[in-house]
Structure formats: C-alpha cells, structure tokens
C-alpha cells in the first residue's frame, strides 16, 4: 500500500510539483465580434470611433479608427463554459444503462462588466445584438454563421503567463441583464452583466 500524503506540507509539496494552485482571480478575455456594418449602417466598435455622445462613427481621413483594447475585456466575474453528454437509456437485458450518444454545450457564459462614463461597453454589446437581429426581427444569418472561434478565455498564472485557454466557437451576446442604479449607491461604480451563448468550445493547456 502506498503512503498517503497526510500533512499540509505534503499537500503543498505535491501541488508545487504540479505548478501550484490556480487562482480564480487570474484570467483574461478576448472577444472578436463581427467587423462589418449592421443593417442600420452602424460601424463595428473595433473599426469606428466612439464619440462623446456614445455614437460610433466611421473614422475620418487621417484619423485612426478602432479601440484595440476593447477586444480585451476585464470582467469582474465570469462563468466558464461547461459541457455534458446526452444519453439514451438501454432497458434490454439486465440492469438499466445510460449510453452517451451526443455532446451537449447548453450552458451560458455570464460576464459582469464595469461601465465607463460614456457607456462604451454597453454600446458595444447593444450594437452587436442589433447586428444579429434588426428592429424588424430579421435575422442576419451571415453575421451568426461567421462567428467562429471568436471568444478566448485565458487562465493565467500568478506571473500573468497563460496556462490554459478556452476557445469558444460561435459566441454571441444573447442577453443584457437588467442593471441597478440608485442614489444610495454613492461609493459604488456601475456594472452590468452580459450572457453569451455558443456552439461549442475547445479547452487546452499551454
């Protein structure tokens, strides 16, 4: 019989050989939304210029368009994607058994994001949702089908090195959750939540 690790030091030494414990506060998110104009003629935030009125416009001659940092998001909280397998029940011969037959990715990714004063983050996702479905509830099929590997969630070490990556395929914002504002929230800052649906994902260690 092998010896069991019985002390805290044994546990720490074991985890040290595996690279240490992962911290849930070390992560980064990259999102690549559609980059063309939607049916309203609105310009993608990563190609356009955000004005003080919160409207995204096309850059003028000599003006640098895009806000590259907006591809990199820093959500306060994020739920990682999950997966399961659908099963079919076999009731023939002997005990009942469950056989897997299909992959399932039926969960949502939820992000809690902070809001800047010009509400750029909110405008970013409002624009994206308008691109998918217009005001007449017409679906922009090409905008949905072209979403491939467009979200990446990186798990970071304490030295900010990426140790693992979730590559999310077909991610799109499905809901902007109601946010609370109030006169009593003097010492707080504004935040909002966005939920994403996706087709599937790939997990890999780096």
Question: Could you characterize the architecture of this molecule?
Answer:
This protein has 206 residues and is of the alpha+beta class. It contains three helices and 13 strands. A hairpin with a 5-residue loop joins strand 9 and strand 10 (162-169). It is globular, with a radius of gyration of 22 Å.
SSE diagram, text form:
Layout: H1 8-17, E1 27-31, E2 49-50, E3 56-57, E4 72-73, E5 77-78, E6 84-90, E7 97-104, E8 109-114, H2 120-132, H3 141-145, E9 151-156, E10 162-169, E11 172-177, E12 191-197, E13 200-205
Antiparallel strand pairs: 1-4, 1-9, 2-3, 5-8, 6-7, 8-12, 9-10, 10-13, 11-12
Beta strand count:
13
* Radius of gyration based on Cα positions: 22 Å
In helices, the fraction of residues equals: 10-25%
Mean pLDDT: 78
The stretches of 5 or more residues where confidence is low (pLDDT under 50) are 37-41, 45-70
What is the topology, as strand order, of the major beta sheet?
Answer: 4-1-9-10-13
Question: By helix and strand content, what is the structural category?
Answer: alpha+beta
Strand content: 25-35%
* Element string (H = helix, E = strand): HEEEEEEEEHHEEEEE
